[in-house]
Amino acid sequence: MSYRRAILDTMNRQWSLIGAPSSAGAHTPGVEQAPGALRAAGLLRSLDGVTDLGDIPGFRWRPDPSRPTAQNAPTVARVARDVAAAVAAVPGTPLVLGGDCTVTLGLVAGAGAPALVYVDGGPDLYTPQTRLNGNLDAMGLAHMLGLPGAAPEVAAVGGATPMLTPDRVVVYGDDLPVGDPERDLVDSLGLTYVPGSEVHADAAAAAGRARAAAEGAADHFVVHFDVDVLAFGAAPFADVPEPLGLSLDEAGTTLSILAASPRFAGLSITEVNPDHLPEPTDLQPLIAMLAKALQ
């Protein structure tokens, strides 16, 4: 997607929705149902100017004994490449509905050298060498950065490796303590870090700092939004529960400020697990937040 087109879309945004119904990178099935569930809950009806381009071929998670520390890696790479091809071809601003977090590799690869604001309950900086249970959705950013130990076929989704350099990454919304291995990597890599505590204190200011960092890092930027950044008690639809996450209001303020940038060039929404919903209607608060933030 061109930077010029991103500017025009901000003035009169037309969303191009791409479904990526895959749990290939997850630890269990469930999130592959999310694109259909979000459509059924009324996401398209709630947004102005959206064209539904359908789904890429999906995948339901299954164990992969052949690659226990990088399970389903070839399928994760295939899904990400399919997303990248779809993103590169869309007429409007891409809105990718995952699926697990690894679909964001496709958004980044298809968007053409963007910066990335990574809104997530954790920065996903593990590799197959450091997370032995093998779910690649906990390793997405590590693969985009090409960290040592990354699965080669996943890291190469964008062609050149690495897809991203640390100066083009903003990690946003988690509250990992100093001493946590991922938090230590955020610091040692020099990634811009906007912790959840900063968002709780002033969501608009926190989002403004993230936006300024992304705008200063590249001609355009994309946003990854994993719903596990949300406090699970108020938003019980994440694949991985996070008891101390952001409120829906804080997330909505964040997405609204990021999407209002003339350099904003796309969004992925990941890790919605419909199987966790007490009632199907419990997706409505998420739909309402997204509709308000993305208009």
TrEMBL record:
Transmembrane segments: none annotated. Pfam families: Arginase. InterPro entries: Ureohydrolase, Ureohydrolase_dom_sf. The keyword Metal-binding applies. Keywords: Hydrolase, Manganese, Metal-binding. Belongs to the arginase family. One of its GO terms (molecular function) is arginase activity. It comes from Actinoplanes nipponensis. One of its GO terms (cellular component) is cytoplasm. The lineage of its organism: Bacteria, Bacillati, Actinomycetota, Actinomycetes, Micromonosporales. This is Arginase.
